[in-house]
Amino acid sequence: MTPRERVIIGRKTDDIQYVMTMMTTNRIRHLPILAEGKIIGLISIGDVVKALLDKSEYDKKMLEDYITGKYPG
User: Fold this and answer.
1) What is the pLDDT of residues 10-64, one digit of tens each?
2) Bridging pattern class, strands 30-35 and 38-44
3) Domains of the chain
4) Closest Cα partner for 47 from 11, 27, 19, 25?
5) What is the side-by-side strand order in the sheet with 10-11?
């Protein structure tokens, strides 16, 4: 099988960092997700960007709450 014929896949247990690395390294914009030999989903580069933005917003909110004394801990 030549490199152009291989299919790059992800698994449902892969974290966002791994998915982002796979997509960047292989210069792909979509990654099929397999479980038990069947495609269960498809992650796009847009999905990755959205997940990272959501995490950044969450982290920002937690830091703001911590700095202003609203942190629950």
Assistant:
1) 999 999 999 999 999 999 999 999 999 999 999 999 999 999 999 999 999 999 9
2) antiparallel
3) 10-68 (3.10.580.10)
4) 19
5) 10-11, 30-35, 38-44
- Contact assessment for residue 25 and residue 10, using Cβ atoms and an 8 Å cutoff: no
User: Is this prediction's pTM over 0.85?
Assistant: no
Q: Which residues contact 11 (CB under 8 A, 6 or more apart)?
A: 33, 34, 35
Per the structure block, which two tokens stand in for 51? Answer: 């997940």
